[in-house]
């Protein structure tokens, strides 16, 4: 799979430009234009998979962080200058 989304976006843009050029020269129903269109569709699909995977990964990290933050904010408070003594609410 691709290392970076930007690499995949660059490849999508290049494929799109080639497809448009081919469509202008040979027509939109030419076999070469259709093949390039299908390759472009595959690249876009790969990009969507990468984007979805990264979004789900961010959601999981946010959930873990949120749970940790709630635990620590409710767990304890320190008294003035006596940091070894923990006071629970």
From TrEMBL:
Xref: InterPro entries: HLH_DNA-bd_sf (IPR036638), Spo0E-like (IPR018540), Spo0E-like_sf (IPR037208)
Name of the featured protein: Aspartyl-phosphate phosphatase Spo0E family protein
Organism from which the protein derives: Niallia hominis
